[in-house]
Structures are given as structure tokens and as C-alpha cells.
Known about the structure:
The protein has helices spanning 2-12, 49-61, 85-98, 111-118, 122-129, 148-163, 184-207, 210-239; strands at 65-67, 101-106, 134-139, 170-174, 181-183, 245-247. By secondary structure, the chain is an alpha/beta fold.
Amino acid sequence: MFDRLRRRSKASMVPITSIKPVPKAPPTTSSNYTNSSKTHNTSFYDLPSELRIHIYELVAQDTGLSLFSASPKNVKSPALLLTSRQIRNEYRPVLLSLAPVRVHIDNYDFRPLIRVIGSLYSTELKALRKNNRHTIVLHLKNFDITSEKCMTSLRRWAVKRAEHLDRLPWSYELAQPAASSLPMASAVAQMCRLEKSIAAVHALQKSVHESLAAEIEPVAEVLRARCAYWENAIAHAWRNGSWERVHLD
């Protein structure tokens, strides 16, 4: 049996002369060294600064900032400010120059806003001056908003606005009613309340310097606009025979 296996193995052997040499592979050099054998992970910090700034701008345009909100539990800090110190320092000026800023003020008490503005760095103020989307939302919660205390607070804000050289371009609006409709009696009471507030603000304007009166005028304008809104809503309800409720748009 062993002889038979030897004969078969000899018969299946290939002559040495018929074997062709295998070509040698070219030596590996740095020029043909593939990236698959050497990987490099690129992080956000490796991007050029111009590209990072562009990303910050895209994010900031869709991010809103709210101060002293009536619902502070629903207000969250922008996520990029919570990542790292480098991103926070790079993103904050972009955010302040592009994001809409809404500040909620109760009964003309601007003291919290004055403190915040006074605590800002010059670079942050410079960024805010580039932003034209600053809004002060006035909440007239106190029934006696024509009191001397409220008018003194409004006058203090006008003085601060007139004194500061780096004034920010604030616009004003009144907080919207929470309900979509009100009883007729409540709507009439709201309108009368606004009329008294307008009279008090006009009296304040007459008692101060014209520069301060000019600073108070935007507040008077939003009060007059809201009072006209209530008048139209009440008149529309009367015309349509809705004696019990006034529907708000």
C-alpha cells in the first residue's frame, strides 16, 4: 500500500521546470501607505475657526434667549453653552449678536434688567449692540399700575436709558392674555385699566425732561395700541350680538 501511495504521489508531482516564479510585491513606502492602516479621528475642535463660527451662526439664528420669564421652568440654557469652555467662549458673542432676546418685566420694575446689563462685559455689550431683536415684554400684573411706585420705576428706567452711551435697541410689547376669550365685563375692565395707565404715563412724560419723555414714548405707544385692540374687540362683539364674551384674535 505504501508503494502504491508513493507511485501515485510521484505521478502527480509537477516538474520543477514548469513552475513559474511568483512576482515579488513592490516594497511598501510612505507614498502608497493607505489611510486604512493609519486612522485619524477629526473632532469639532479640528475644524477651521471660520467654519465653527458659521455653525454657531446657524444655531444662534434659531435660538431664543429669555430673561425673567413668567414660566422659568420652561426656560432652558442653550445646549452649546453647556459643552466646554472653548465652545462657550466662542459661541456666546455669536449668540448675543444674532439670537432674539426677550426680557419679561413686571409692573415697570426694570431693576433686574439694569443689574444684568451692568454685569455684562464690554465684548458682550458690543455683541448685543449688533442685535436688533431685543424685546421687553411688559406684564401689568398689579391692579394699581398707575401708582407712584410704578411710575417711579418707569422714570428710573428712562433715566438709565438716557444716561447710558451704549444703549441697546429695545422694542416693547405687552404680554398677551392667556385666555382666547374673556367675559364682557372683564374685557371692559381691562380696557379701562389700560386707559388709566396711558393717562398716568402721559402725565409722567409731561413732568420730566423731553429726553426722558422720548425714552418713555415707546411704552406709551404699546399701551395705546393694546387699548385700541380691546376697543375693537369689544365693538366687534357688540356688533355680532355677543353680549357675554369677547373673543380675542
